[in-house]
Amino acid sequence: MQIAQILDELKQQDNFRILRSLKHEGKYVVYNGQKLLNLAGNDYLNLSNEKVLKQDFLTHLKEFEFSSSSSRSLSGNYAIFDEFESFLEAKLGKKILHFNNGYALNVSCLQALASIKNTLFLADKQVHASIIDGLRLGGAKFIRFKHNDIKHLQSLAQKHYKEFENIIIISEALFSMDGDFAPIKEFINLKKEFKNIKIYIDEAHSIGCFSDDGLGYVKFLGLEKEVDFLVFTFGKAIASMGACMISNEKDFFINKARAFIYSTAIAPINVAWTLHVFKHLHKFNTQRKKLLELSAWFKNALASKGAVLGEAYVISFILGQNALASKISKKLLENGIFAPAIKEPTVAKNTARIRFSLHAGLVKKDLEKVLEVL
């Protein structure tokens, strides 16, 4: 076996991953006895530290199981799943199907869609690994278009629309690495131009943080009825776990999404917490406003230090080489800031970076220290 050789090569490339044992204390983590400001999480609204929200949930919690002990297709479809799905269906006007997590959802839903004959997928170059894995597992015919390049996408649609019965455009609403927004309005214009186009949008990093109800960037734009497949994940700004597919094809995914069929369903108590958060999302406009204002200030200040990417609260400081990104991350760590380097292959070659994931629990003073270290 070549395992040792593979690991040695990763170490030589400064790309060897480790797991750190962390203790969480509010906006800090404790690592090796050192208290560090955590800028590596995705709890964008800081809801995991909303004590009133959590206490209200526990106060009104009925008896819920800590395991479903079965897939939903068998005996694991507890009433709370239907309650959660019905709640979101009333808000979004489309059917909802709950999954255990976003990775499982994307892999199995795209694998299922790939089984539809004569279908072409056009995926943004920077979509999440789970999307690419789903397309590959499904043996899909897919082409990756240049990141957020609507002209390239249009040329591909023009070239292939007569050849395929269905074309599905895949993108994220807010991208997890470059922190920029997809041109969703332009996708919809293409859908109107080419009648066989459908749109698949992953809202993993935008759910919770936009519009007065927090129901994602697509709804903020008023375009939720135009997007055929919309994905919410709950492990980031919702401060929970799980994910859901929003579409009019619920029965198709119940029958064809393998991760849904063959996985023990997530614990009912987790679904109850997710529903509780969604019922209170409209109360966190102050946090949403603060997050966007703080992010704009930090991005502008950080730009004086070098190349910066990000249009919202995911802000990347571009350093190029893996070794340099690791060096800067270590320097930040030594000064009480936890912001691990993001390196190839997670991002493209020569774009290694420090990605700062901001949240509503931060203040300017926290981020001023980052600027001082840099």
Features:
374 residues, alpha/beta, Aspartate Aminotransferase, domain 1, Aspartate Aminotransferase, domain 2, 4-stranded mixed β-sheet, 14 helices, 15 strands, 19% strand, globular
Number-wise, the strands total 15
The shape, in one word, is: globular
Relative helix content: 25-40%
Topology order in helix (H) and strand (E) letters: HEEEHHEHEHEHEHEHEEHHHHEEHEEEH
**Structural class, judged by helices and strands?**
alpha/beta
CATH-assigned homologous superfamily of the largest domain:
Type I PLP-dependent aspartate aminotransferase-like (Major domain)
Mean pLDDT over the residues: 94
Instruction: Give the biggest beta sheet.
Output: 7 strands, mixed
Uncertain residue segments: none
Rg is 21 Å
Total number of helices: 14
Domain Aminotransferase class I/classII large: 35-374
Organism: Campylobacter armoricus
GO biological process, one term: biotin biosynthetic process
Protein name: 8-amino-7-oxononanoate synthase
Task: Offer a concise description of the structure.
One of its GO terms (molecular function) is 8-amino-7-oxononanoate synthase activity. The protein is α/β, with parallel strands linked by helices and 374 residues long. The chain has helices at residues 3-12, 51-60, 79-92, 102-113, 129-137, 150-160, 184-193, 217-220, 250-256, 258-261, 268-280, 285-302, 322-334, 364-373; strands spanning 23-25, 28-31, 34-38, 95-99, 119-124, 141-145, 166-172, 197-202, 229-233, 243-247, 308-309, 314-320, 337-338, 341-342, 352-357.
